[in-house]
Structures are given as C-alpha cells and as structure tokens.
TrEMBL record:
Keywords: Cell outer membrane, Ion transport, Iron, Iron transport, Membrane, Receptor, TonB box, Transmembrane, Transmembrane beta strand, Transport. The lineage of its organism: Bacteria, Pseudomonadati, Pseudomonadota, Alphaproteobacteria, Acetobacterales. Gene3D superfamilies: TonB-dependent receptor, beta-barrel domain. This is TonB-dependent receptor. It comes from the Bacteria. Pfam families: Plug (PF07715).
Length: 753
C-alpha cells in the first residue's frame, strides 16, 4: 500500500489541539510581529497550511528548520493506514520491518535503525503519543485510530523531547474532545474476511469539562496458508479504547487526562523458506516453500511442554497495553508551566516459528512484562517578541521482566531458556531558545544533558536436554551500564522572500547502550554491554510555497558522522559451531543523502503529490565476524575488516499520489492512485539482502457535499506484486523471509453525526 504526505496538505485546526483553551506558548505564535506572521502564513491557496506541535508550540512546518513530514487524518483514511507498519509508505526515508515476523517492529529513518527482536533495548526512533514517550519497542502494538495526524521528524532529537534518539521521532497526535457534541462510526470489510469497526463520541459535559471516548476492533484477514495442515494463518483479533477528558477551570489553567488500553489475540506472521533448508543436512535439504504465502509450523513435544502450548500450536502474537497520563498547563504572566506525568504497562506473550517447518529447528517464545513511569516538567515563554524559550527536566523509570525460550531440539538436541529483569533510570535537563534577529532571520540553539543507568539483574542463559538444565552455572547476578552525555542543536533560518525559508541545522543525538540478552551460550558474553551510539548531523534545506501556482516544494540534504553505531554481528558457539547473534559497536561510519516533498494543485479539484529520498553510507572503521573455524576441537570466529562496506539501507525510496474530485449534483466522487517504491536493501550478509519493490494503490469515495456519510473503496498492491518485507536467518542453513501482503481491497462506510 502506498501513500504520500498530503493530497493536499490538510489544514489542521489548532482549536482541537492540546492547549486550545489556554493563552499559552502555542497562542504566542499568533502574537508575533506582523512581518513574521506574514512569512508564517500562506494566502488563499489550494496548498493549505498545516499546524504542527513538534517544536512544543503551534507552528507551520514550513517555518521549522528541520526535515518533517505530516501525515494528515485524510491521508490516513484514504490510504487505509491501519497500523504503524503502513506509515513507511506515506513518508520518505522511513522503513519499518517486523523482526522475523514477530510482533515487534524495527524503525529506521535515513538508514539509522536498530534491528532487534528483543524487548529490552531502546529504539533509534522515538515513538510518542500526545507527547508521551514509549521506550519499550513492542509497546506500540500497531493499532492507529481516531488520529488527528502523525508527525515524522528526521534526524537526531533530544533538546525538546522526552528521550534522546539518533534516528528521529514519530509523534502520534490524537483527536481531542470537542466543544460541541459529535459522534461517528466507521465499518470496513475487506479481502480475506478482514473487518474493522471504529467509532467515537465527543462533546462537553459542562462549560469546563469535555470528553472524547473512541475505540476500534479489528478481526479476520488470514492471508497465509499451511500446505501440510491445510489451515490458514494471519487472523487479526484485537481491540483498543481511549478516553480523553479535558478540564479547564479557568482561562489560564487546563488539565488533560488520558486513559487507554488494548488487547491483542492475533496470529503471528509466518516466515517462508526462500531457499532449501540445509540446517539439518546439506546433502539432503528440505525443500523451499512453493509459495511465499505458504508457511509451516510445529514444534517438539518437549519444547511445547516447556512453553505451555500444543506441538501443533499456531504461531501467535499477543500484546496487551494499558496506561494513563495527566497533563497540566498553567499560564503565568510571562511563561507557561507544563507537567506531563504518565504510566504505561505492557505485556508480550508470543510464540513464533522462525524455521518454516514442523520440526523444532528454530522455534521461539517471548514472555515479557514491562512498565514505564515518566514525568516531564517544562517552562516555556508565552509572550510576543523576538526571544522564545523552553526548558525543563525529564525523569523516566522502566522495569522489565523477560523470558525468552528457543527450541532447537531437532537441530542440536537442546532448547534454550533465557531469563532476566532490567531496570532503566533516566534523568535529563533540556532547553532550547529561538532569537529573531530580524523578521527574516532567526537562530535556534538547544542542549540536553542526559544521565541513564541500565541494570540487568539475575540473567540466566540455560540449555535444556530432555527438560533438564545442562549448564546451571551460566548465570550473572548483575550487570550495569551508565552514561552522562550531551546532545545539542543549532539552527539558522533565513527567509529570502515570503513563503520561502532556507535553513542550516546541526544536531547531535544519543541512543542508549544495552545488552544483547538473546542468542548466546555464554551469559558473560550476553551481558557484556554495547555502548551508546552518538550521531552528529549536518543538514541544509529549503522550504518553498508558491501560492499563486498552488505549489509546495521542500528539499533537504544531510550528512551524518556516526560513532559507535550499534549493529548486529555474531559469534559462534564453541561446541556446535552455529552462528549466534550479538550486538557490537562499529567505531566510525558516515551517511549522507537528501529528501524532497512536492505538492501541486493545478486545478481546483486535482491534487498531485510526490516525495522521495536518497540515502547511502559506509563503515569507516569496523571489523566483524564473517565465519568460523575449528581449532583444537573448539569453534572460533573469523574476523574481517569491512571498512568501506556500504551500510544496509534501500538507497532510494519514493512515494506519489494523485486524486481528483468529480462533482455530480449534490455529491462528490473522489478517485485517486498512489504508489510506493524502494530499491534493494543491501547488507553485509548476502542472505539479509532485501530486494526492492514498487506497490500501487487506488482509492474511490462517494459522499454528499459536506454530508454526514461516505462510502469508500480502497485497493492496496493492486498489481499483486510479490515482495518481501524482511529477509534473514535465525539458524544457519535456514534462510527465511516474511512476505508482504498480496493484493487486498476494502469497502468502508462512514457516518458522522
């Protein structure tokens, strides 16, 4: 499924945003000098204004000196973006992959990502819902509903956001309680008997209290097939709800309460073997899958007993979440105080088959419980003038208890059982200022000092034969890592003429270090921490709107100096010689590239948009293990200097769309097409190379002018392109891939009252 940032760029009313009733720093944007305001606004044009809050105040993104894309509610609806995975087809430079088909996604922006299916390490891309950070990778279970917009920021973040990141940030902005009573419901049915229903009810309780209750349920959609058992896999069974309550006792004080939860009992995604399976026998291999939509599963009776399932259990991914947050905004004469406190609980129960067979070659189970408590206190200017500032402190505490079990009985006559708990304490101080030297020239500077301590407790890495632990001594009581590091931002923004901005931005980002915890026979090796990574970014760009011709064109170029990049390497089991994944630091690397976004409305009812990105990079200093040799009966790794090797990333990605509105009396018919292209994702390891692909989509809707109902039809991958979204291996000789969805269609009926 493909999409683009805007068709057209949709106006988002700030009256529904987080501080609509306060005369706060957000409303301060409207108090700027007339000349600055003229630069910030766009006259009557079919390329409309967008208001975002990525800089902690309401701004037009055309006046923010960083690369940012906004996916509006209209695009989310028209492209049927149901989950986080589909976001990559609506913005440049973003790639999202399910790790081996597990319920945990890997986010990559501009080639900066962290490919990991474990639960304990932080991602390179920060995920925020209404400014609340969630640093647990599986904590965002994929559901997206009742969204106002999604903001995707590229490049290091930290001087304004709750957590340091090197890749970027994705901000989900939900619809807020309304001043008048409103309700709506949407029902959708699609191929593979997939269904979705979501709705909301919103309005005032009295003149000071408003609420919004929304929810969604998704069912069906099994698109994979097991030829041995003649059963299907891929059914979705999940639901979520969110309650928002806004209380405004005065014009200078506002409280926002958020209560949310989700329950997921879905099937997992099954991988397929794209080459013959040679892990058991190189001379008599098991055949590859006949179709990329075929997948097989099953495990040994012993591993099934250890995990608590049946040997023929379908793979499943059950991720439940729940939490609450309370935000306070208090306006004083010259500044606004904001406090955002949150609590989130997550649990992951998952069983996956990573070998595409009924044998116990590479079967895994995750049992994870985690919670996050955080509080952010910040102060920001709310007066007009040339000087704008924001500063605050952030504290976060994570607790996680994890058990990871692996079934290798058919291959090694043993199973694995890893258990540990982890605590992470983070405290940071941050601040950013902007000074308007002239109405055309602004400078921005920011800094953040962050201290984090990550502690691993009671780490066991046991092997079991016939249910008996064979290495009880493989245990570490405690391992820890801490750092205190700065991140920073400096930007110059210049408006050579109205509706045009040139900018240069330097920024530095930090990503936390961590522990591999999975896939090693030596617990000391497993708990040996990898270091934090640091990224220095240099970016130049231009943001241009030509109202007369209804054109918007943005372009940027960036260069990254990357230190201690966290990459997955491997070690080899000294007894079996099998490859075992391990995270290490690549001392130095670099990346560079650029993005563009183009929107044009040549006719009142015709909207065209296009975006693309080119990214490349290489390791400047790095040696990695590429093989193994047996010396005196012990397997040892063979290292190779890979300096100069290209970093794995699809070098070019592009998204485009066009739509036209046909007027038929009192009704409108909207038709549209869209596409998404990505080139081959190269890798240090040949089996990890992911071939490129192009997907096409279509959209049609029928509705009365500004009417209360709409009928829509959506097609995704309408050419039925065969492609993969993940490739790799879990055990040597078993090369697996996760296929992308075949052609699908959905019919949707929507009504608002």
């Amino acid at each position: 499924m493909a999409g683009i940032v805007a068709m057209p760029v949709t106006t988002i009313s700030y009256a529904q945003d987080t501080k609509s009733s306060l005369t706060s720093e957000h409303s301060a944007a409207s108090k700027k000098k007339p000349k600055l305001k003229k630069l910030s606004s766009v006259p009557a044009s079919r390329v409309e204004d967008v208001i975002v809050t990525s800089e902690r105040r309401a701004q037009n993104p055309q006046n923010i000196g960083t690369s940012i894309s906004v996916i509006s509610a209209k695009v989310l609806e028209n492209r049927n973006i149901n989950n986080v995975f589909d976001l990559q087809y609506a913005t440049p430079s973003l790639q999202i992959q399910p790790s081996y088909g597990s319920g945990q996604y890997t986010y990559t922006i501009r080639g900066v990502g962290f490919s990991n299916y474990s639960s304990n390490n932080s991602p390179t891309v920060g995920i925020y819902i209404d400014e609340v950070a969630n640093p647990i990778p599986f904590g965002i279970n994929g559901m997206m509903f009742d969204m106002q917009r999604v903001e995707v920021l590229r490049g290091p973040q930290g001087t304004l956001y709750g957590r340091n990141t090197t890749g970027g940030a994705i901000n989900y902005i939900t619809n807020k309680p309304t001043e008048t009573f409103k309700t709506g419901i949407t029902a959708q049915y699609g191929r593979f008997d997939s269904g979705k229903v979501d709705g909301y009810i919103s309005g005032p309780i009295n003149d000071k209290l408003r609420f919004r209750l929304s929810g969604q349920t998704q069912q069906g959609g099994a698109w994979q097939y097991n030829p041995e058992t003649q059963t299907h896999l891929g059914n979705v069974n999940r639901g979520a709800a969110r309650l928002l309550v806004d209380y405004t006792p005065s014009n200078t004080l506002k409280f926002e309460w958020n209560l949310h939860g989700s329950r997921d009992r879905s099937d997992a995604i099954g991988p397929y073997a794209w080459s013959p399976i040679t892990s058991l026998s190189k001379t008599n291999p098991m055949p590859a899958s006949a179709s990329r939509y075929d997948t097989r599963w099953g495990t040994s009776e012993q591993f099934a007993k250890e995990v608590g399932i049946n040997p023929d259990q379908k793979p499943y991914s059950h991720i439940d979440t729940g939490g609450t947050s309370l935000r306070l905004d208090k306006q004083f004469q010259n500044f606004t105080l904001t406090n955002l406190a949150s609590y989130d609980y997550m649990q992951r129960n998952e069983y996956d088959n990573f070998d595409d067979s009924a044998l116990s070659l590479a079967d895994v189970a995750f049992r994870t419980r985690a919670n996050v408590v955080a509080d952010e206190l910040r102060f920001s200017s709310n007066t007009s003038g040339r000087f704008h500032w924001i500063g605050g402190i952030y504290y976060g505490h994570q607790w996680l208890n994890d058990r990871y079990q692996s079934g290798f009985e058919a291959l090694y006559n043993t199973d694995g059982d890893v258990r540990y708990s982890q605590e992470v304490n983070t405290i940071s101080g941050f601040g950013q200022v902007q000074y308007d030297i002239t109405p055309k020239l602004q400078v921005v500077g920011g800094i953040r000092i962050e201290h984090e301590k990550r502690t691993l407790n009671n780490a066991y890495a046991h092997y079991l034969t016939a249910g008996v632990v064979t290495n009880p001594q493989n245990y570490v009581a405690r391992q820890s890592q801490d750092y205190t590091l700065p991140s920073a931002k400096f930007s110059i923004q210049y408006h050579p003429m109205a509706h045009d901005m040139l900018y240069f931005t330097f920024s530095k980002g930090i990503k936390s270090g961590g522990f591999t915890v999975y896939n090693t026979s030596d617990v000391n090796q497993m708990t040996n921490p990898f270091k934090p990574e640091q990224l220095y970014s240099f970016e130049v760009g231009n943001k241009l709107v030509i109202p007369k011709y209804n054109i918007k064109f943005n372009a940027d170029f960036f260069y990254y100096d990357y230190f201690d990049r966290q990459v997955q390497s491997k070690v080899y089991s000294p007894t079996t010689g099998s490859a075992i994944g391990l995270f290490v630091n690549a001392p130095k690397s670099h990346m560079f590239g650029g993005e563009y976004e183009f929107a044009w409305s040549p006719l009142p009812d015709l909207h065209i948009s296009q975006s693309g990105a080119y990214v490349t990079g290489a390791y400047d200093k790095f040696s990695t293990v590429v093989g193994a040799q047996k010396v005196n009966g012990v397997w040892t790794g063979i290292s190779q200097n890979v300096s100069g090797r290209t970093i794995d990333v699809p070098h070019f990605t592009a998204n485009g769309s066009v739509d036209y509105t046909w007027h038929a009396g009192r009704y409108d018919i909207v038709t549209g097409m869209d596409y998404s292209l990505r080139t081959t994702d190269h890798s240090l390891t040949a089996v990890d190379v992911l071939p490129g692909y192009t997907l096409w989509g279509g959209y049609i809707s029928f509705a009365p002018h500004n009417g209360p109902w709409k009928i829509e039809g959506i097609g995704r991958n309408i050419t039925n392109k065969h492609y993969d979204v993940t490739r790799g291996y879990f055990v040597g000789g078993d090369n697996i891939a996760v296929a992308g969805l075949p052609a699908t269609w959905e019919v949707r009926l929507r009504a608002d009252f």
